[in-house]
Amino acid sequence: MKTGLFVTIVGALALAALDAPARVRAAEPIACDALARVPIANGTVLSAESVPAGGFKAPGSTNASAAAVFSALPPFCRVTARLTPTPDSDIRVEVWLPLAGWNHKMQAAGLRHGYRSPASA
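Given the sequence above, the corresponding structure tokens read:
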């Protein structure tokens, strides 16, 4: 369910500025900083910032190989949000949207806190 919710949020962020349904009109580009003001159902966009090529630094990271991978990233829009599908929810998500050259494919990954897969039980 969380992956579905994540995909829904990404879609909402990408399409919220349109005044017509996506199936009627193609999405127009939205400036990265404008995404911070996009309302989302059952949640809040906390931030939206442009990150220049090679400009992402993981907080508190001392892993040299991770730093090398991050230094090779193209420019992107880093969006953070808090999702509250239920009153007691506090789900934090982060989406990195390419600023150019997006192939319209998406890969989502996540970790459910406290989840233990059947294989590890």
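Residues 2-101 form one domain. Try to locate this feature in the token string yourself.
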